Amino acid sequence: MTAYTRRVLHARQDSLQAFSSSIAGLLSSRAVLQGVGVGDASASPTTALLLSILQESTGRIATIVFADRLGTSLEPECKMYRLAADVFNDAAMLLDCLSPALPRGPRVLLLSSSSMLRALCGVAAGSSKASLSAHFAKWGNLGELNAKDSSQETVISLLGMLAGSVVVSYVSSPISTWTCLVLLLSIHLAMNRAAVRAVTMHSLNRQRANLVTSTLIDQDRIMSPHEVSVQERIFEWDGVLRWRSSSPFAAARIGLSLRELLASLAPAHERTRSIRDTEARLTRLIRLYGQEEFLVWYDAPERLGHITLKEGAAAESQLKAWVLVLWTAHRHHAAGADATGAVFETSLEVHRRTLQELSSRWSDYLGRLRSAGWDLDTASLVTRPGSRVRLPARTGSSRQ
Q1: Residue among 253, 200, 198 at smallest CA distance from 223
Q2: What is the pLDDT of residue 207?
Q3: Pairing verdict, β 388-389 and 304-310
Q4: pTM
């Protein structure tokens, strides 16, 4: 399947999901109007206005919090958040349709939750759509692509509203309303899932890095972006480590501060929580990675990898750090060190041997990955705001 065919397929599925969503939106809007008292002589316009203000305030607060907490991960995980946005939106429609059946107090809470979900949908959909648009704009025509996409959405929404006007005129009973709503939302989610599946990303986020590099190390074979898009999961646990398509056997965090890394190397005092590195483990780790732009340590008993990035760490160095912690974790897991608990000296030797082997192959790996069509210049592994450390060349101290 060519890139043009995948783009056309994505556009068709995106149009179908937008059409079904427009009709479902009219059904949920009617439910909201019933909930605020349209058609009820005892309803107060002031009450409806205050409820609208509460919904708007809740939604805007949710937008700020969501963008602050997950803003870094929206681009690397754009496929996941594109589908998650529609899950949020459909959940909001379901809450809207439930609202007329509840008393006033729970109804206000339900409509506020609905507004919050729509705000989450707006942030996730807007950011992920921008990333996907940049992905499809192959010849620097991002503006043209966005203009045509907006025109397509406008036409589809207009057709959906016209069709929805007919639907809401004939669908009025609770049973028929819920049947129609569930059917439309099912089509909406199915089309969105298919549309996201049709997208082939060329950047290496955590999940794709796991698949590509473990296959490369195991079989000396480069998986193509299209091959990976068929195998990758849309929803994946954050930071899990998988060797090829195996079950998760460990996890890793990237962008940690030096203190967080030290806490994994040396135990903290029970009362004061101060850390005493009596064996100079951190110093030895700094020496081991003296020529690298990162520090990596895999805590075998906890099955957790720790990656601290040095100041100015490039995208290729971040990828190398992730591959190193993946390979090191796999070797510990294969040796059974996760269950028995590896001694520091033994674990450090595994780190040293893995670093030497990876470094000897790294230039060849990078060339083959680029030849296969992978984008190695885009950093897509850090999904949360993190730290960078500055390590002076002569002394073993560090400054953050």
Answers
A1: 200
A2: 93
A3: parallel
A4: 0.83
